Amino acid sequence: MGGFFGRVRGVKEASAAFDAYITETVAAGAPEREARVKAWASAPHARDCHPLRAEEHLAPLFVVAGAAYDEERGARIYNDSNAMGSGATLSAWEFRS
Question: What is the pTM of this model?
Answer without folding.
Answer: 0.84
